[in-house]
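# step 3/5: fold
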Amino acid sequence: MATTVRPESPGVAVAPTGRDPYIDNVKGLLIVLVVLGHMVRPTVGSSPGGWTVYTFIYLCHMPAFVMLSGMLSATELTGSRAASLVRDLLAPYLVFQLLYMSFYTLMDKPMPWAVDEFLSPIFHLWFLPALFIWRMLAPFFAQLRGGVVIAIGVSLSAGAATVLGHALSLDRVAGMLPFFVVGVWLGRGRLAYRPSTRVRLAAIAVLITAAPIAYLVASRLSSLWVYWNSTYQQAGVEATHGVLIRLGLMIVGFAMTWAIMMLAPHRQTLLTGWGTNSMYPYLLHGFVVLAFTWSPLPKRVDNIPALLALTAAVVALVWITASQPVVRASRPLVSPPVGWLLRNAVPAKKHQSVAATTQSRAQNAETD
């Protein structure tokens, strides 16, 4: 369905009739957290409580995105669905991998232009190949008895493995697999649940409790833990301790994901439009984040007002990159015309009419 624009809010994309605003609200909230986490990272050395804020975000935002992706994933892989994975995940990955490599070069931070670089996602692009692999695995785990337990075992074992690397995000595919498989197990139908006031209060309590946990993780553990892509050895612990730490972080991630989903509004809000076009902020915000990181500005975020101003700038960035003018201008990059490559290609006009749905389901990402 096509994205619409409210007359009272010129240029701001909102969910069209027929979409579930709750799902788009969850995605809208999570994409704000994604961008905020990336913008906060270069300021952690100077901003008050920077590491705690950063860790709090990273404990939940990608576990929530991965689990939501699992809930929205099809459990049957048909030819047309395989074609959509190529069109909506692999094609934009290749386009933006090339664009970000060019951006690094233009900013005098050159990198080798080799096949290995195209296979190793830059910055936040890791989520696209990871989601491609997860969705290819969704039918398998949907039919597998004990799939959640097996996925947890894969994640815990991945921390001790040395064969996984950054190529095609295989390290994170294995590390965050439980969140995706639990999402597949729950299914899209669970998103129709309407929590009571008591449940919402419990969700608030979970997030409040997560704040001191984030402080302890930030002060006592390496930041590598929250990226789900490092071995226990790289994180500086033995395998036994590593398994316990990763399992603990997994429990925290599931609890915070539940809390976020219970607190997300079910009516149309400003978040709805951001979630509808969430692929656009996801793919485009990295240019701004990198420019900010390479500038002297992060050192100036050294007090609460500056941190609040940075948060406001993040909200503005998401608003702009999800707006109709930006969506229209960047659609050829975000949704490149690859129908000629696919046997089950959707006709151009029809593809444009469903672009918002397919792209928003592709979900968004983060970094490191």
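# step 4/5: annotate
The chain has one domain: 4-361.
# step 5/5: archive (pending)
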